[in-house]
Design brief:
With 296 residues, the protein is of the alpha/beta class. It contains 12 helices and 10 strands.
């Protein structure tokens, strides 16, 4: 694979573009919003500068890496020569289904179509295309340039050759691919989201406060970040959407979202992205304090 297109210039999309450009791949980053694309380039540039400041990247390579990323609002042109397209749009099934229809119609016949979805069915996305054997999930972890894991999801008809090719690409760029089959939430979120939801229930029921819940999981279970802080970083709206996928997909109440989570999402308190969640965030997200809502 020589040419990669990434659709969606949000946090995950710009992280994926950053990652592949760092490993010498030319990348086209695509979005309908030109302003979002410009912000994505600024974010990538800032992240590269931080890597250089930490000694993780030769400063002379920053312009070189940036030069490999082209931005575009023209989807047909952006995917016309792609060997791999990675969809990183919002976690909305109808949006993704529409994108996969368009990607299939516009991409070269040999192109692999991948989704960065964290919970939605790869098999369902593949069913909207004429090439289901060439559709696969590539669930990157955030922040993409730092986290090693790529959860590789095989749809019902994904070919072994495509799975092998994606795993080889991941390894070539320093990632660790873990192959899973296509069931709701895959592995990462099937295990993670019930834990986060249970932590929210514990807070909702008054078992402990925000800091205690997170500290217990950090010090007792060696988690680098507590579940409530992690939920803020993921986005409480995203957590809710994934829990709903799990609840519907398995038909089980054990995945039912906590009422507190529902209320917070309805109130627009989504975590880091809005500045308020279980914690309150200033300009620097590391300088956090428990949200006033949860103080005794």
């Amino acid at each position: 694979m020589e040419h990669i297109s990434v659709i969606g210039a949000g946090t995950m999309g710009n992280g994926i573009a950053h990652h592949f450009a760092m490993h010498d791949y030319p990348v086209v980053l695509v979005d309908v919003d030109s302003e979002r694309l410009e912000k994505a380039l600024l974010a990538i540039s800032g992240n590269l500068d931080r890597q250089a400041a930490k000694g993780l990247l030769d400063p002379s390579r920053v312009p070189e890496v940036l030069s490999r990323i082209r931005i575009s609002t023209d989807l047909p042109a952006a995917v016309s020569g792609a060997d791999l397209i990675i969809e990183a749009a919002s976690e909305n099934l109808s949006v993704k289904l529409s994108l996969f229809q368009r990607m299939d119609a516009l991409a070269p016949a040999a192109c692999i179509l991948a989704s960065n979805t964290s919970s939605l069915s790869i098999t369902k996305l593949a069913s909207e295309t004429s090439r289901p054997s060439q559709v696969i999930g590539m669930h990157f972890m955030n922040p993409v340039p730092v986290m090693k894991l790529v959860e590789v999801i095989r749809g019902f008809e994904t070919s072994a050759g495509v799975t092998d090719a994606i795993c080889e690409l991941a390894k070539k760029t320093g990632k660790v691919p873990c192959v899973v089959n296509d069931y709701p939430g895959f592995i990462a979120n099937r295990v993670l989201m019930p834990m986060i939801n249970e932590a929210i229930y514990a807070l909702h029921e008054g078992v402990a406060g925000v800091e205690s819940i997170d500290l217990i999981m950090k010090l007792g279970m060696a988690h680098p970040m507590g579940p409530l802080q992690l939920a803020d970083y993921i986005g409480l709206d995203t957590c809710l959407a994934i829990l709903k996928v799990l609840e519907e997909g398995f038909g089980s109440s054990k995945f039912s979202p906590c009422p507190l989570l529902l209320n917070m999402v309805n109130a627009g308190e989504l975590g880091v992205k809005t500045g308020h969640g279980f914690y309150s965030y200033g300009e620097k997200t590391k300088q956090l304090k428990v949200s006033d809502r949860f103080l005794a």
